[in-house]
Amino acid sequence: MDLFQKSAEKRRTHQPLAERMRPQSLAELVGQGHLLAPGRLLGQLAPGRTLPSLILWGPPGSGKTTLARLLGEAVRAHLIALSAVTSGVKEVREVVAEAATRRDQYGHRTLLFIDEIHRFSKAQQDALLPHVEAGTVTLVGATTENPSFGVIAALLSRCRVVRLEPLADDQLAALARRALTDRDRGLGALEVTIADEPLAHLVDRAAGDARRMYGILEVAAQLAGAGAAITDAHLDEASQQKTLTYDRSGDEHYGVVSAFIKSMRGSDPDAAVYWMTRMLEAGEDPRFVIRRMVIFASEDVGNADPQALVVAVAALQAYELVGLPEGVLPLTQAVVYLATAPKSNTALTSYAAARKAVRERGALPVPPELRPASTELARKMGHGEGYRYPHDFEGAYVPADYLPEALRGERFYQPTDSGYEAELRARLEAWAARRQPSKKGV
To answer: How confident is the model at residue 242 (pLDDT cuts 50, 70, 90)?
Structure first.
């Protein structure tokens, strides 16, 4: 082995296992069959074939960077990789200039890979537009966030968005076995083994993330030692506490929050508690969770159970009083209450109907009988004339219509038959039966 080979071998052994085991060809890539199978978008790549600009959207460890590299090799394009965290407009312009020279002088195509493209500012993304449209570079951007939120519409319209899925358990297990037996790039030289049960626990800790799986496996193998078997104790020490995938402002954040709200709305307390716990254990501010609960108490429960809003606000007060970790108990109690409460969205629909009337009809005049008669001039103008004080009548009710003249007879609140609203509905119907067409000033 010459000096150059020895130097390359030394660099390789110092690389993390995930980097050493990175697939060398599309045939070696595990997962993403929905993109790479015959007849699929990326399933017929070959030298000289056209590769459209792509946005690769998927969770960490799903193979976005690897796929970008392999795509460039498959179509024989020159690959240039930039990170949106460390690169700016200047670097983009330099890359584009080099790509134009490479195209004009040698007829070579350039694939520009931008990792975490959602972190590029609008100005940086705008700088890419003309060059992507002209085909000077083929853009492949990678992102863990929903591209609709992080990538400008003009750039999205020039790219195909492809979704990468988390690796399945059997796929992660296959990758682990490959790493343990590969003597050139993997851990084969250590001759460590792993039984089916610890392997299943390794896969569970990885949670679909191949990079995380490789990291745990590498440390666990070192802890076990040459010729030994990897045990659960080795995996526990290697993985420490399981990290939950969650970003307070990213796509996973919105996904978990949406699942939390939909579970409460669907009256599933088990799922609601699970999603709430996911947020809290990942470090979400409990006040954010409680704010969603307060909104839900009015938007989705409303007067079907007026106590729901009281419970949600009480959860906030209780959390502020006791803090964490005990504060999770009133939060859990409140979530279970909200999930099992009768549901009504009339707070939402009533406001929406009234808002529509306000916007369409403008500032309609207040009926004179409803105006205050607090001054002599106001009384001479007829303010308050004909108003009947409900408490002077039986049941503290007097048939009347308090809407502006142009909206008399409109009904914005339509109570449901759910929970306490059924009683409200019956009460309103009884009042409506007593209401006679009112005459102005009577």
So the answer is: low
pLDDT above 50 (res 342) = yes
Contact in structure between 158 and 128 (CB atoms under 8 Å): no
CA distances from 81 to 61, 97, 113, 146, 219 (A): 18, 15, 5, 21, 29
Domains contained in the chain, CATH given: 31-163 (3.40.50.300), 169-239 (1.10.8.60), 251-340 (1.20.272.10), 366-434 (1.10.3710.10)
Whether the Cβ atoms of residue 400 and residue 388 lie closer than 8 Å to each other: yes
List the Cα angle 399/405/410 in 5-degree steps.
70
Specify the pTM.
Answer: 0.59
Q: How far is CA 426 from the centre of its chain?
A: 41
With a cut of 80, say whether residue 232 has pLDDT above it.
yes
109 pLDDT more than 60: yes
Q: What is the 3 state secondary structure string of the chain?
A: CCHHHHHHHHHHHCCCHHHHCCCCCHHHCCCCHHHHCCCCCCCCCCCCCCCCCEEEECCCCCCHHHHHHHHHHHCCCEEEEEECCCCCHHHHHHHHHHHHHHHHHHCCCEEEEEECHHHCCHHHHHHHHHHHHHCCCEEEEEECCCHHHHCCHHHHCCCEEEECCCCCHHHHHHHHHHHHHCCCCCCHHHCCEECHHHHHHHHHHHCCCHHHHHHHHHHHHHHHCCCCEECHHHHHHHHCCCCCCCCCCCHHHHHHHHHHHHHHHCCCHHHHHHHHHHHHHCCCCHHHHHHHHHHHHHHHHHHHCCHHHHHHHHHHHHHHHHCCCCCHHHHHHHHHHHHHCCCCCHHHHHHHHHHHHHHHHCCCCCCHHHCCCCCHHHHHCCCCCCCCCHHHCHHHCCCCCCCCHHHCCCCCCCCCCCCCHHHHHHHHHHHHHHCCCCCCCC
Q: Which residue has the higher pLDDT, 345 or 254?
A: 345
Q: What is the pLDDT of residue 1?
A: 47
In sequence order, the β-bridge partners of residue 10 are none
pLDDT tens profile 144-163: 888 888 888 999 988 988 88
